[in-house]
Amino acid sequence: MKNITEYNHKKILVLGLAKSGVVAASLLHQLGAFVTVNDYKPFEENPDAQGLLEQGIKVICGSHPVELLDEGFELIVKNPGIPYSNPLVQGAVELGIPIITEIELAYRISEAEMIGITGTNGKTTTTTLIFEMLQSAENQPLIAGNIGTVASEVAQIATSENKMVVELSSFQLMGIQTYRPKIAIITNLYEAHLDYHGTWKEYAQAKSNITKNQTEEDFLIVNADQQKLIDLIRFTKAKIIPFSTKRYLTEGASVRNGQLVFQGEEIMAVDEIALPGDHNLENILAAVTAVKILGVGNESIRSVLRTFRGVKHRTQFVKTINNRTFYNDSKATNILAAASALKAFTEPVILLAGGLDRGNEFDELIPYLDNVKAMVLFGETAEKLEEAGRMAGVKNIQRVENVEMAVPAAYKLSQEDDIILLSPACASWDQYRTFEVRGDIFIEAVHKLK
After folding, report:
1. Which of 102, 131, 202, 213 is the most buried (most CB within 10 A)?
2. What is the rounded distance in angstroms from the CA atom of residue 31 to the CA atom of residue 337?
3. Pure H helices in 149-273
């Protein structure tokens, strides 16, 4: 960890806890800042806040009072989940108080170069593939960020011998100032999180922040099949390296005659890859590009791609029972992600879907339901999804209370060689704290089947 002094004796507000807030508060306290933590959860129900108080950090819980700004903070480290529409955050913006997320802290203290991965879909798979390929090549990678491990915690142990592979959300990228990855990746860009960002323009701008501080010495890997993405990052100073699943590229990564190709060099046959789905081919090409830039050999790449079957909650194989195969795609929190999962299968699918109602309809999902023989629906969006299913001609549609009940219901509807797929097309927050919790409940329910 770099020995930095820029936060020493500064009054800093850490707004919102969860994992990133706890780590940020402790780190800033260690770096000599006068830290105040503000979290919405009441103190008596808040073990994180209680632990920080024991460290000597000032803690205010139960609400986000705007009056806190009277204390003269010089910096706010905001939990990514708290929107900028929050009155306290709005007040800070009006006062000109800088607002960052903990990824900025991680960058400032890290001795390791960073590989930053963002995009609407595919971030976690791409991040994990890069980590696995670097590890296979006997590098010393560290994995962090939105994937589950707090970046500023990992950065504290990182050395110049490491490479930090960091998954980044649009929420995190809105709060950067100097963050500059050596290699940045934008997997794809589709309309998402408009309940947080308000507009497509703001969402896209947040994603493009990943490259705003890059220089001519850095690399930006982008999906060449999306013209709107290419247009978005024209301002970058980084060297752009594209990838494409739709056409052969002499510069970058693509597919030619059934082979993965990078800069004209064949790496391996596509049919040797263990991970199913065209959407995953995008993720693979992005990951291959990153590790080739870093000098990883083809054998290390091949060994990973021949065995890697996916990340937990991302089209994850769970179990085969009586020739019915179960997949957990709980991370599919939007229509596009669910559509990508459905496209990965040629077998008949029983789709388990539903969740938080963000106000959208599901008409865009209809073209991808051709292979769906039955739907088992739950959550706030069950009625809307049923309407989409009826319009697509799905004849067997059932509604149940939750994911746990959906699993046996789907099994009863199934026959041999069917795919039973949890791909909700919705966020989990109407019933479950996270998509991980939802996916774990699905897995547990599958293993309980008799």
Report:
1. 102
2. 40
3. 151-154, 170-173, 194-197, 200-208, 227-232
**Number of CB atoms found within 10 A of residue 68's CB:** 18
Determine which helix (DSSP H) or strand (DSSP E) holds 135, and give its type and residue range: helix 123-136
| pLDDT tens string 3-32 | 899 999 999 999 999 899 999 999 999 999
- Listing DSSP states for 310-328 in one string gives --TTSSEEEEEETTEEEEE
Query: Does residue 410 contact residue 420 with C-beta atoms inside 8 Å?
Result: yes
How many other C-beta atoms lie within 10 A of the C-beta of residue 178? 10
- The predicted-structure confidence for 269-309, as pLDDT tens digits, reads as follows 999 999 877 888 999 999 999 999 999 999 999 999 999 98
Distance CA 59, CA 52 (A): 7
State the residue for tokens 């009072």. Answer: 65
Contact 147, 312 (CB under 8 A): no
In angstroms, rounded to a whole number, what is the distance separating the alpha carbons of residues 115 and 195?
A: 28
Q: Residue 101 in 3-state DSSP? A: coil
Closest CA to 336 of 195, 224, 201, 190: 190
Q: What is the pLDDT of residues 108-145, one digit of tens each?
A: 999 999 999 999 988 999 999 999 999 999 889 999 99
Residue 121 known to bind ligand: yes
For 20, 38, 150, 206, 208, the CA distances from 172, given in Å and listed in that order, are: 11, 18, 12, 9, 12
Is 123 assigned to a binding site?
Answer: yes
119 is in an annotated binding site: yes
Domains and CATH numbers, the chain: 11-100 (3.40.50.720), 107-305 (3.40.1190.10), 316-448 (3.90.190.20)
Cα–Cα separations (whole angstroms), residue 125 to 4, 220, 280, 395: 33, 18, 8, 33
CA 176 to centroid of chain Cα atoms: 17
Residue 166 to residue 350: CA distance in whole angstroms: 34
Query: What is the length of the chain?
Result: 450
Strand partners, 141: 163
- Each as own residue / partner, the long-range contacts of residues 213-218 (CB below 8 Å, 24 or more positions apart, any chain) are 213/176, 213/178, 213/179, 213/180, 214/180, 214/181, 214/184, 214/238, 215/180, 218/180, 218/181, 218/182, 218/183, 218/184
Other C-beta atoms closer than 10 Å to the C-beta of 22 total: 22
- Cα–Cα distance measured from residue 87 to residue 94, given in angstroms and rounded to the nearest whole number: 10
